[in-house]
Write a structure and sequence with these properties.
Chain lengths: 289, 306
C-alpha cells in the first residue's frame, strides 16, 4: 500500500483501493472476469455446438472428449453451460441496466422536484412495492410469446423501485450543499448541474445497488426459464439447464449439479462483490463487518 | 396510530384496484381471447359464450364489472373450469400454498434467528465466520437447484417422504424445507448484523453497568431492538415466498395457487388470473400492515412518531 505518499485520490480510486484490500473481493472479481471471458469465447473454442445432438451417445459421465459429460440428447454439457451462462449474464446485465436507468431518472426527478411532486412520486413507489410483480411478469411472458428482449425489459421494469429510493435520497441530501449552490451562483445551467455535479456524486450508490440487483435479476430469469416462460429450448440459459437437469435428477443428477454449481458460484461472487462495493464506498458500514 | 392504520388500509385498497386494472389490461393483450381459444365451436355458440361472460361489452364496461365483482365480493366464474367460481378455485389451492409458505417461514425463523444470534455473540471467531459463510452460501443456492436435490435425497433415495405430489399429511415438509433453508440464510445475516449493532449501543452498556446478567442483556434488552430489521424483512419475505411457491410447486408438483396461476396465464383464463393476482396483492398488503403494527408495538420510537 502506498497510502504513505501524499497523493490525492479521487473518490473512485480510493473506493477501488479499499475494495481490493479485502482478498475475498479480489477473488470474486477475478472469478467473474474469468467467467465472462469463458462464457464469451468458450462456446466458440469448443469443438461442439451447444445444440448439436449426438443421439447415439446419450447421457455420459465426464470424459476426455466431454469434460462435463453430455446430456440425454448427447449435447456437450460444458459448451451448453458456457453458452447458457452467456445468456444468463446478458439478461442479468441488460435487465439491471433497464432497472438502473428507470430508477435513476425517477429518483432524480423526484428528488429535484421536491415538495408535493416528490411526496406523490414516492407514495407511488410505496404502492408499487405491494404489487405482486411476479404475477405480472408471468402473465406478460405468457402473452407476448417469450421474446428474448422482453425478458429483460419485463424484469427491469419491476426491479427499479429500490434504485429510485436510493437515488432520490442522495439527491435530496446533495442538492442544497454548498458546492451545488456555488455552481448555480456561477451561472451553471440545470443540465450542467445534473450531469457534472449530481450524477458523479450519486454514482457510488448507483453502482452498489446495481451490483446487488444483478444476482436478483439472474434468479428471476432462471425462475422464469425454469417455469418454461423465459428462454426457450434448444437455446439455453442456466435456468433452462437447471430445469432440464431437475427433470432427470434421479438418473443423471450431475446434469442439475454442474449448472447449479456454476450458477451458485456466480451468485456468490456477485453478492460478495456487492457487499464489498458497499463497504468500499461507505467506510462507515465496515463496522458491521 | 388509528390514523396510520386507516391510511394504510386506504392505500391497500388503491393497490388492490390498481392490480385488478393492470391484470385486466394485460390479459386483454392476449391474442385471440378466452372464448376464441376454444376449438370446434360454432359462431352462435361463441356469441352466446361472449354474451354470457359479458365479453361483447366495451372494455371500460368490462373493467367496471370487474370492479363491481371485487367491491361486492361476488366473484365471477372461471373461463376454464366451467361452473366453478374463482373463489372456489382459490379456496382449493390456497391451503396448499399457505401450509408450505407458513411452514417455510417458521423454519426460516427457527434456523435463522438462533444462527445469526450465535454468530453475533462471537464476533470474528471461527464459529462466526463459518456460520456467516453458511448463510451466504444459502442465499446463493437457488430454490430450483435445492428443491430437486432435496427431493432426490429425502424422497427418492432415503424414501422418508414422497418426492412429489400432495397425498400424505407430511407432503408439506420437503417443499417447506427448500424455501425455509434459503430464507433462513437471509434472516441469519440480518439478525447477526442488527444484533451486533445493537450490542454496541449505549443502553446495552447501561444495562450491563446495572449488573444485568448477560442472558438478560441479550434476550431482554438487545433482541427486542435487534429483531426490528428481521420483522421489517418479513413483509418482502412473504412476497418472496409467493414467488418461491411458483418454483417449489412446480418442483414438487403441488396443486397450489402458483400452479393454478401459471395454468390460467397460459390458457387465457382471465377471470382466474385477475382473481389470483388480486388475492396475492391483498395478502401482501395485509402482511405489510401486520408487520407495521407489530413494529410500532415493539419500537417506542416508531410508536411515538405515529
Amino acid at each position: 500500500m502506498s497510502s504513505g505518499t501524499k497523493q490525492s485520490l479521487s473518490p473512485m480510486q480510493a473506493a477501488w483501493q479499499r475494495l481490493m484490500r479485502q482478498r475475498m473481493n479480489a477473488w470474486a472479481l477475478g472469478f467473474l472476469a474469468a467467467l465472462v471471458l469463458l462464457c464469451g469465447i468458450g462456446p466458440k473454442l469448443s469443438p461442439y455446438d451447444q445444440s448439436q445432438q449426438d443421439l447415439e451417445l446419450k447421457a455420459t459421465n465426464p470424459s476426455m472428449g466431454h469434460w462435463l459429460g453430455t446430456d440425454p440428447l448427447g449435447r456437450d454439457m460444458l459448451t451448453r453451460i458456457l453458452h447458457g451462462g452467456r445468456v444468463s449474464l446478458e439478461v442479468g446485465l441488460l435487465a439491471t441496466a433497464v432497472a438502473a436507468i428507470i430508477g435513476v431518472i425517477y429518483g432524480m426527478t423526484s428528488g429535484l422536484a421536491g415538495g408535493r411532486t416528490d411526496a406523490a412520486m414516492m407514495r407511488i413507489v410505496d404502492i408499487l412495492y405491494a404489487f405482486p410483480f411476479i404475477n405480472f411478469v408471468i402473465l406478460l411472458m405468457a402473452i407476448v410469446g417469450r421474446e428474448f428482449w422482453l425478458i429483460f425489459v419485463a424484469i427491469g421494469a419491476v426491479e427499479w423501485l429500490t434504485m429510485a429510493r436510493v437515488v432520490r435520497g442522495q439527491v435530496l441530501a446533495l442538492k442544497n450543499l454548498e458546492f451545488i449552490i456555488a455552481a448555480r451562483a456561477c451561472g451553471a445551467g440545470f443540465w450542467h448541474i445534473v450531469w457534472r455535479h449530481l450524477l458523479p456524486n450519486v454514482m457510488g450508490p448507483i453502482i452498489i445497488y446495481a451490483s446487488l440487483t444483478v444476482p436478483g435479476v439472474m434468479l428471476l430469469e432462471a425462475a422464469l426459464s425454469f417455469l418454461g416462460l423465459g428462454i426457450q429450448p434448444p437455446d439455453a440459459s442456466w435456468g433452462v439447464l437447471i430445469q432440464e437437469g431437475a427433470k432427470s435428477v434421479e438418473s443423471y443428477p450431475w446434469l442439475l449439479i454442474y449448472p447449479g454449481i456454476f450458477f451458485s458460484l456466480t451468485l456468490l461472487a456477485l453478492n460478495l462483490l456487492g457487499d464489498g462495493l458497499r463497504d468500499a464506498f461507505d467506510p462507515k458500514s465496515m463496522s458491521q463487518q | 396510530m388509528i390514523r396510520f392504520i386507516v391510511s394504510r388500509i386506504v392505500q391497500g385498497i388503491i393497490v388492490i384496484f390498481a392490480v385488478i386494472t393492470i391484470t385486466f389490461a394485460l390479459s386483454k393483450m392476449v391474442p385471440g381471447g378466452a372464448v376464441r381459444n376454444e376449438r370446434n365451436i360454432t359462431e352462435e355458440a361463441r356469441k352466446a359464450q361472449e354474451e354470457y361472460y359479458g365479453l361483447n361489452k366495451p372494455w371500460i364496461v368490462q373493467l367496471g364489472l370487474q370492479f363491481k365483482h371485487y367491491a361486492t365480493l361476488d366473484l365471477p366464474e372461471s373461463y376454464h373450469y366451467k361452473g366453478r367460481g374463482v373463489d372456489e378455485i382459490i379456496a382449493s389451492g390456497f391451503p396448499v400454498s399457505a401450509a408450505v409458505g407458513g411452514a417455510a417461514l417458521l423454519i426460516a425463523l427457527a434456523i435463522g434467528v438462533p444462527l445469526g444470534a450465535y454468530a453475533a455473540l462471537r464476533p470474528n471467531t471461527f464459529e462466526d465466520r463459518s456460520s456467516t459463510l453458511a448463510a451466504t452460501l444459502g442465499i446463493c443456492t437457488p430454490s430450483m437447484v435445492l428443491g430437486p436435490l432435496i427431493a432426490l435425497l429425502f424422497g427418492l433415495k432415503l424414501r422418508w417422504f414422497n418426492a412429489s405430489g400432495w397425498f400424505d399429511a407430511s407432503d408439506w415438509v420437503l417443499p417447506a424445507l427448500t424455501l425455509g433453508v434459503i430464507y433462513s440464510a437471509y434472516i441469519a445475516r440480518l439478525t447477526r448484523g442488527s444484533l451486533r449493532e445493537t450490542l454496541a449501543q449505549e443502553f446495552i452498556r447501561t444495562a450491563r453497568a446495572k449488573g444485568a446478567s448477560e442472558g438478560a442483556v441479550v434476550f431482554l434488552h438487545a433482541m427486542k431492538l435487534a429483531c426490528l430489521p428481521v420483522l421489517n424483512y418479513l413483509g418482502p419475505a412473504a412476497a418472496g415466498l409467493l414467488t418461491g411457491s411458483f418454483i417449489v410447486e412446480t418442483v414438487f408438483q403441488l396443486p397450489g395457487l402458483g400452479q393454478f396461476f401459471i395454468a390460467a396465464a397460459t390458457n387465457g383464463d382471465h377471470q382466474l388470473t385477475i382473481a389470483i393476482s388480486t388475492f396475492y396483492a391483498a395478502l401482501i398488503v395485509t402482511f405489510n400492515l401486520l408487520v407495521d403494527i407489530l413494529q410500532a408495538a415493539l419500537n417506542p420510537r416508531i410508536r411515538l412518531q405515529a
